[in-house]
Amino acid sequence: MNNLLYMGGIFCLLGRRRFLKTSEISKTSEVYVLLSYIAMLFLGSCGTTTEKSERPSVDKEKQQAIIDKWLVDSARSYSYVDHEWQYYIDKGLAEDSTIAYLWQQKAMPWFKAGKYEVGMAYIDKAVKYDRQSW
């Protein structure tokens, strides 16, 4: 959305003379285009601030400790196809279900087995908790 707004702004403010002849644009339409762009920026910024304010604060150190305890020290002692892999990841998720990395690691055995629908349910949870990483 932001890239679209940025591209629209470049077109409105700088590129209008390159793409359209000056005689084709009246002063009224120039003002209308600029006001439309400003309205799009305003509406776009309203949506992003609401989304950021709804996210809970995350204690990264606590989450990293859980990852180290249940994934690095426990689950990685086994192959990802073993039941113990899922068991230890489930233990970590029981402590903090908002750790996107654990949801992603829970999905990997399903993707490797070709069961993409099952794996995508876990990837969707990873995206829910950390959009930028997943």
Could you please describe the fold and organization of this structure?
- With 134 residues, the chain is mainly alpha-helical.
- It folds into 2 domains: 2-54; 60-129, Serine Threonine Protein Phosphatase 5, Tetratricopeptide repeat, CATH 1.25.40.
- Helix content is 74%, strand content 0%.
- The protein has helices spanning 2-19, 27-54, 60-72, 83-95, 100-112, 116-129.
- α1 packs antiparallel against α2 (27-54), α3 (60-72) packs antiparallel against α4 and α5 (100-112) packs antiparallel against α6.
- The radius of gyration is 24 Å and the shape is elongated.
- The two termini are 18 Å apart.
In short:
By secondary structure, the protein is mainly α. The chain has six helices and no strands. 74% of the residues lie in helices and 0% in strands.
Key phrases:
mainly alpha; 134 residues; Serine Threonine Protein Phosphatase 5, Tetratricopeptide repeat; 6 helices
Structural class: mainly alpha
* Strand and helix order: HHHHHH
Using the CA coordinates, give the radius of gyration.
24 Å
Compute the number of helices.
Answer: 6
Helical coverage, percent range: over 70%
Q: What is the averaged pLDDT score? A: 77
Poorly predicted ranges: 49-55
Q: Which CATH architecture of the largest domain is right? A: Alpha Horseshoe
How does the SSE layout of this entry go?
Elements: H1 2-19, H2 27-54, H3 60-72, H4 83-95, H5 100-112, H6 116-129
Helix pairs in contact: 1-2, 3-4, 4-5, 5-6
